[in-house]
Structure formats: structure tokens, C-alpha cells
Amino acid sequence: MNSLNHEAPMWEDAFGISWLDFNLSNVLMMFVASLIVFILGVAATRNMQRYPTGFQNFMEWLIDFIKGIIGSNMDWRTGRLFLPLGLTLFAYIFVANMLGVITNGVVGHTLWWKSPTADPGITLTLATLVVVLSHYYGVKLRGGKEYAKGFVRPLPFLLPFKIIEEFSNTLTLGLRLYGNIYAGEILLSLLVGLAATGVGGFIGATVPMIAWMGFSTFIGFIQAFIFVMLTMVYLSHKVSEDH
Amino acid sequence: MQGFTESLVLGAGGLNIGDMIIQLVFFLGLLALLGKFAWGPLMNMMKEREDYVANEINTAEKSREEAQRMQREASEELKATRQDAQNIIEDARKTAGQQERDILESARAEAERMKESARQEIEQEKEKAVQALKDQVATMSVMIASKVIEKELSQKDQEALINQYIDEAGEER
């Protein structure tokens, strides 16, 4: 259990404001993930050709992949709006998930390098952003009246459930991602702890470690996919005519 | 152990408002920057390629139609030419037949004419010869008769008589 006693590099009561706390490792990892995604995105599209090669091909495949997710949920005419959102969400979450799979960095007793998505606050922020966006686009694309009517459809007594649903959607969307990635990191750090106990522990931990890293990569991809998929589902509930 | 449970429930640090604000700012910033520098150009390029392909297909379709039209025209042209050639040959053959007939006709007419003129000439010659013979026979008869019957008939009477005989003789012939 030693590995779980790592401390977070907290900066509490920042600027003397009592409720403002920063986990500096999260801040660092968010910055790293954003930077990687940005550099990859720009590098892939810096030298574009009509006949795509190499990296551009990959990015176009990614666009088609996200297009497929959107297309399975809503009409492409409205869905086109959300393509940049879906792409950015997918790329950011996937890279963030992978950062913790590659390695967990500990300096002294402080955990600095991990997945930013292994923190509930961060995943809930993303989930809240998505749900708030779905409401915003619901009003913007269908008008306030239609948006409000959506809450009493198909039957008026469903109104309280519909309202609860909005909050539960936010919670499940954020916590699903957090739970998967955090569990992966816990097991990885347990295995690292086992490997650190001695020669026997190292040998015993190597194979499960490799297997679990592979599985975590898979999970990281799947969770990014699910997050984007559910984002589009929630958006389509709000913006599509036939719901 | 309580710390472990707590960290399992809420993660290493729990919910930090600061993290949330920073995540929101980072994500929106990333969304804006990527939209401007990566997705925008990439999607434009994909759109452009789509248009290009559609355009190329249209062009190909058009030139295929054009080629078909030209081929049809060419085959019609060929057919017309072949028809013309056939007509010309037919004409030539007809003209040649006509000429052949004309030549034969005129040759035959010419031959006929020549034959006719030859016959007339012969007739004339014969007429002349008969006339000459008649004259000569008359003269000789007169001479003979005058020698035979010099005394009984005058020259004049004898001649008339002989001519009468000769005419009779000539008519019987």
C-alpha cells in the first residue's frame, strides 16, 4: 500500500482565497496533455496535400472516425457543428489517458506525473462542459420553446426525472472516465510497488505489468471513444427534432 | 487506512476548484486553437478534395459523352461516304453501259449507211453500164443492120425499128 501514500502537490487557499485549491500535478499534466494534442494537431496539418500521406492520413482517418460517431447519433447537417468539439475531446482525453499509462512520475513522495483524467474534478469539468453545451445548443438550434418542451416529452409527469437525468448524465459521464483511468493507475502503481520489493517481486510483476499496460491502453482508447460517443448522444437529444 | 479509502473515493486530491477552472480554460483554449490551426485547415482540405474528385468525375462523364457523340458522328459520316462511293460506282457503270450501247448503235448506223451508199453507187454504175451497153448495142445493130439491109430501109427507119426491138428486148429482161 506504500505507493498509494504518495502526496499530491497541493497549493491550497491560493491567492488567499479559501475555496481555491490547486493540485499542481493536475495543472502540469493538463498543460502537458494540451500541449501534446496541440503540437500533434498542428504538425499533422502543417504541410497538407491534396494526396494525403503519412500523418495527414492518420488525422483524416481520425476525422472520419469522429464523423462516424456523430453520424450515428444525429443528422450530419447539425452534427457538423460538433466535429471540432468531438475531435478535440477525443484527442485530449486519449492523450491524457495515455500519459498515465506510459509512466507515473514520483518525485520524493509527491506524485507529479499521472493522467489528468484520473482526477474526478477534471473529468466532471469536462462532463459539465458537455452537458452545458448540450443545453446551449438545444436553445440555440431549436428555440427556447422547443427546448423547454423537451422536458415534458413524451409525458408531463416525467419532468422531475428529466431534470434528475441531466445531473446524473453529468455525474456518470465524468465519473466513468475517472473511475476507469484511476483504477488503471492504482493497479499500475501496485504493480510498481511489487516490482520494487526485490528481485522476485520484479520478475513476478513484469508480466502482469506489461499485460496491464496493454489493457490500460485499450481502456484509454475505449473511454475516450465512449466519452465522445455519449457527448454526441446527449447533444443529439437536445438538438434533434425527433426526440 | 482511512486515507486510503478517502483517496479511493475521491482520488488523490478530491475536487479542487482551481483544477476545474484550469481544465475548463485549457480545454476551451485547446478547442479554439486546434479549431483554428488544425481542424479548420484539415477539413477545408478534405472538402476541397471532395470537390476536386466530384469535379473530375463530372469532367470525365462529360468527355465520355463527347467521345460517344463524336464516334457516332464519325460512323454516320463513314456510312454516308460509303453510300456516296457506291452511288458513284453505280453511275459510272450506268454511263459506261450507255456509252457502249451508243457506240455500238452509231457503228451499226454507220455501217448501214455505208452499205446503203455502196448499194446506190452499184445501182448507179449498173444503170450507167446498161445505158452505155444499150447505146453501143443500138449503134452496133444499126451498123449491122445497115450492112445487112442497106438498100431496103433508110437509115432513119431502120434506127427507129431497131430501137423498138431493143426496147422490147430490154423490157423482157
UniProtKB/TrEMBL annotation, chain A:
An example Gene Ontology CC term for this record: proton-transporting ATP synthase complex
Source domain of life: Bacteria
Residues annotated as transmembrane: 27-45, 81-102, 122-139, 181-203, 209-235
InterPro entries: ATP_syn_F0_a_bact/chloroplast, ATP_synth_F0_asu, ATP_synth_F0_asu_AS, F0_ATP_A_sf
Primary localization class, coarse: membrane
NCBIfam families to which the protein is assigned, alphabetical: ATP_synt_6_or_A (TIGR01131), PRK05815.1-4 (NF004479)
Protein name (database record): ATP synthase subunit a
Gene from which the chain derives: atpB
From TrEMBL, chain B:
Location of the protein in the cell: Cell membrane; Endomembrane system
Taxonomy, superkingdom: Bacteria
Residues spanning the membrane: 20-39
Gene Ontology CC annotations of this record: endomembrane system; plasma membrane; proton-transporting ATP synthase complex
Membrane topology of this protein: Single-pass membrane protein
Keywords: ATP synthesis, Cell membrane, CF(0), Coiled coil, Hydrogen ion transport, Ion transport, Membrane, Transmembrane, Transmembrane helix, Transport
GO molecular function, one term: proton-transporting ATP synthase activity, rotational mechanism
Major location (coarse): membrane
Coiled coil start-end: 53-139
InterPro entries: ATP_synth_B-like_membr_sf, ATP_synth_b/b'su_bac/chlpt, ATP_synth_F0_bsu_bac, ATP_synthase_B_chain
PANTHER family: ATP SYNTHASE SUBUNIT B (PTHR33445:SF1), ATP SYNTHASE SUBUNIT B', CHLOROPLASTIC (PTHR33445)
Function: Component of the F(0) channel, it forms part of the peripheral stalk, linking F(1) to F(0). F(1)F(0) ATP synthase produces ATP from ADP in the presence of a proton or sodium gradient. F-type ATPases consist of two structural domains, F(1) containing the extramembraneous catalytic core and F(0) containing the membrane proton channel, linked together by a central stalk and a peripheral stalk. During catalysis, ATP synthesis in the catalytic domain of F(1) is coupled via a rotary mechanism of the central stalk subunits to proton translocation.
Summary of subunit composition and partner proteins: F-type ATPases have 2 components, F(1) - the catalytic core - and F(0) - the membrane proton channel. F(1) has five subunits: alpha(3), beta(3), gamma(1), delta(1), epsilon(1). F(0) has three main subunits: a(1), b(2) and c(10-14). The alpha and beta chains form an alternating ring which encloses part of the gamma chain. F(1) is attached to F(0) by a central stalk formed by the gamma and epsilon chains, while a peripheral stalk is formed by the delta and b chains.
Stored HAMAP family: ATP_synth_b_bprime
Annotated family: Belongs to the ATPase B chain family.
Protein name: ATP synthase subunit b
The organism of origin for this protein: Halobacillus dabanensis
Source organism phylogeny: Bacteria, Bacillati, Bacillota, Bacilli, Bacillales
Record gene name: atpF
